[in-house]
Amino acid sequence: MDLLPAANALAPLAGIAAPQRPARDYHARVMQILAVTNIKGGVGKTTTAVNLAYLAAASARRTTLWDLDPQGASTHLLRGEPGIQASAKKLVKGKLDLSELIARTGYAGLDLLPADLSYRDFDIHMSERKHRTGQLLKMSAPLRELCDTLVLDCPPGMSLLSENVLRAADAIIVPVLPSPLSLRMLEQLYEFAAQSGWTDRCILPFFSMVDRRKSLHEETIASTRARFPDILLTEVPYWSEIERMTVRRAPLPAFAPRSPAAQVYANLWAEIAARLPPP
Question: How large is the C-alpha radius of gyration of the chain?
Fold first, then answer.
């Protein structure tokens, strides 16, 4: 299997100071946290999170996917059920342990923390705590002994939960549509990280839902790569084969492992794994 080579670390945007990662209470953990996020919705976050989590597990990493989006798309794709006992309030207050909510997926090495409607209130409960931006990292601490990789499927938007994700994540994986507006959202993510003091983050954007037949996509990709040459090399096309995941309710590499689309995600995972900071 030919895999695309990894590029160098992503260069900071012009005008944004070089980041310094603040000390984290749980930095000693072996588990790595990978967040799949974008301010904008409809960019392929869920398909990315599910496929990367599956591939991480297939590479002998004990992996858990935490579906943080109350809509529960990742939970649905992995045939999970909403967290019956889950409660954003109890999790934030430490009255409920994340390890109690883990569900099996049927795929070796891959577990699921299902979504719950109460997650829409994470911001409210986090805002009531003394260390508001460290709550997600604190909640995830019990998983350190259970998994090597925690993949976060994050809801769109900028919020207190987003700040928690930026603080907790070892790598932030950003699907980006090849359009000017979507690229503006990427710039806002960098700006948000800089303003929060968390600019030394391993931010890994890649182009998603690419249609090279469209001149706008061609032009946007070319201009973006000229400006930011270290954006991930792998591009995920806008293919019906990928959309079929919602029908099959399974990771693409699981039901079509030799397909061109599965190869694309294998390339993406290889690039990301090569960029990850040491645990």
Answer: 18
pLDDT band at 83 (very low <50, low <70, confident <90, very high): low
Residues 216, 179 contacting (CB under 8 angstroms): yes
Query: Residues 171, 272: contact at Cβ < 8 Å?
Result: yes
Strands 149-153 and 110-113: unpaired
CATH homologous superfamily of 32-275 equals P-loop containing nucleotide triphosphate hydrolases (3.40.50.300)
Predicted TM-score (pTM) of the model is 0.86
Burial letters for 161-178: b for 16+ Cβ neighbours within 10 Å, e otherwise?
bbbbbbbbbbbbbbbbbb
Residue-wise pLDDT tens digits, 235-256? 999 999 999 999 999 999 999 9
Pick the closest to residue 198 from 167, 174, 152 (CA basis): 167
DSSP string, 105-149: -SSTTEEEE---GGGGGHHHHHHTSSSGGGHHHHHHGGGGGT-SE
Q: What are phi and psi of 188, to 5 degrees?
A: -65, -35
Is residue 187 within a helix (H) or strand (E), and if so which, with residue range?
helix 180-195
C-alpha closest to that of 49 among 31, 29, 11, 76: 76
